[in-house]
Amino acid sequence: MAERIGKRELNKARKRAQIVRLASRMFLDESYATTTMSAIADALGGSKATLWAHFSAKEELFAAVVDLHVETFSSDIDEVLTGQAFSVPALRRACLRFIDCLLRENSVLLYRLVMSEGDRFPEVKETFYTRGPAKLRACITDFFATRFHRTEALRLTQIVVSAVTGYRSDVLLRPSRSTRAQHEAFVDSLLELIAWPCGDDGAKTS
């Protein structure tokens, strides 16, 4: 009996993952507005009841799509931040990884979807922010807080995230593809310009 239940749960998880991958392609290739539950069910094939058994609304399915992309994004960022105490070299590595992740095709497509449809569909913007940028900001703040006071860690997070995401927007507007050397030059300039609250060694004060 336990083996049958285990197989049933495994098949259910696989089907859910298949639905999320399919919906991801449709949301990113088309739009949030035109990607309906009926269209997803038709593309999925089989009974429409299968889709509704896993997701009760388009908003819920979109949240799962965002989670799919954020999970990959976050794992890459966590790799260079989690368990790390603040240092400028560690922050430099994290910023470069952040830029790489932001410029991936799926990240760009998801960003464009949120920017183009977030005003018409506030749930899109809210879902994306709470499940993506908000989690990332918390991770970066925790990294800064290993050396700085929490208030300073929050300020530094705002500066770094705003600068890097702004750089992403600038890069996407350029007619030519950006290079790794350009990314490194930007990050090095950013780190040089930050007025570190306790000096460039980040020593925490009382």
TrEMBL record:
<dbReference type="InterPro" id="IPR001647">
    <property type="entry name" value="HTH_TetR"/>
</dbReference>
<keyword id="KW-0805">Transcription regulation</keyword>
<dbReference type="Pfam" id="PF14246">
    <property type="entry name" value="TetR_C_7"/>
</dbReference>
<feature type="DNA-binding region" description="H-T-H motif">
    <location>
        <begin position="36"/>
        <end position="55"/>
    </location>
</feature>
<dbReference type="InterPro" id="IPR050109">
    <property type="entry name" value="HTH-type_TetR-like_transc_reg"/>
</dbReference>
<protein>
    <submittedName>
        <fullName>TetR/AcrR family transcriptional regulator</fullName>
    </submittedName>
</protein>
<feature type="domain" description="HTH tetR-type">
    <location>
        <begin position="13"/>
        <end position="73"/>
    </location>
</feature>
<keyword id="KW-0238">DNA-binding</keyword>
<keyword id="KW-0804">Transcription</keyword>
<dbReference type="InterPro" id="IPR039536">
    <property type="entry name" value="TetR_C_Proteobacteria"/>
</dbReference>
<dbReference type="InterPro" id="IPR009057">
    <property type="entry name" value="Homeodomain-like_sf"/>
</dbReference>
<dbReference type="Pfam" id="PF00440">
    <property type="entry name" value="TetR_N"/>
</dbReference>
